[in-house]
Design a protein that fits this description.
Blueprint lengths: L1 H31 L6 E6 L3 E5 L16 E9 L5 E6 L4 E6 L5 E4 L5 E5 L5 E4 L3 H5 L22 E5 L3 E5 L21 E12 L2 E11 L3 H32 L17
Helix pairs in contact: 1-3
């Protein structure tokens, strides 16, 4: 009975060890697979950090940003408590949360006031800003109405949200063409496309959201996952061989079982 219990114990130990290795390998593989939608760079006014992005309570549609691009926020000025920005959907749009007690204004492509969030939480767009119309298309291929073609016109504000948040598409953070950027010489390598900057104003303080757009090939991450899984399987096989050899050395040779008598199981 004692020898049989030892054998079953070794078999159980091996199975538990192998399951643990394979589970760890699967988790490691998932960790290096392409980042899912909504996982993006986050930047607060206090510090720059990457985190899983969140949607505003009044989100707008994804215009089709490619998963091969990543836009990252590198800095926000001025640094004000209660103000945060996030990139959503790889490089598709931005989310601003304003809990500063001040009006935060985003400026458009011609330096005109484009959008703002007031201290009371109201988010507004200037319908006389060309950005209001250009941002409706991922590539900006829209006709701007005459009333929005003068960047010096007095703003006309329209409320679009009342949650202290503003979510908007911005062509300055992504590549506005379906073609491969000329900066990408090797599609398998992570490549900086360009640095970007969006002017803002917090109260009466001028500043900017600064960031970078990268080409990020996903194939390299998938290959890493395959390598990790392969190494884990090989390691599990090696452990199996070592356990079997140890059991054979430890098991004493005994008389052969009589005819009709059941032999002991190997596991």
């Amino acid at each position: 009975m004692g020898g049989g219990g030892s054998r079953y114990g070794l078999g159980s130990l091996f199975r538990r060890t192998l399951i643990a290795i394979l589970t760890a390998a699967a988790l490691a593989a998932l960790a290096v697979l392409p980042v899912p939608l909504g996982a993006q760079a986050s930047e607060t006014a206090a510090a720059s950090a990457e985190s899983a992005s969140t949607e505003s309570s009044n989100p707008i549609d994804d215009q089709g940003s490619s998963f091969k691009y990543r836009s990252y926020i590198t800095s926000v000025t001025p640094k004000v408590t209660g103000l945060s920005f996030q990139v959503l959907q790889f490089a598709d749009r931005l989310l601003m949360i304003n809990h500063t007690g001040k009006t935060v204004t985003i400026y458009g492509y011609e330096g005109e006031p484009y959008a703002r969030v007031l201290p009371n939480g109201a988010a507004e767009q200037n319908i006389r800003s060309s950005a209001t119309y250009l941002n409706r298309s991922f590539y900006g291929d829209v006709n701007v109405p005459p009333q929005a073609q003068n960047p010096h016109a007095t703003p006309s504000w329209q409320v679009i949200d009342r949650t202290g948040q503003l979510e908007w598409h911005d062509h300055r953070i992504h590549f506005t063409s379906p073609a491969i950027p000329p900066q990408v010489k090797d599609k398998s390598k992570r490549t900086l496309i360009f640095d970007w900057k969006i002017p803002i104003e917090v109260g009466t303080q001028r500043g900017a959201i600064a960031g970078q757009l990268y080409w990020v090939p996903e194939s390299s991450k998938a290959s890493t996952a395959v390598i990790v899984l392969g190494v884990a399987i090989a390691l599990g096989g090696l452990i199996l061989v070592l356990i079997v050899r140890r059991r054979r050395r430890a098991s004493p040779a005994g008389p052969a079982p009589a005819d009709g008598a059941p032999g002991k199981e190997a596991w």
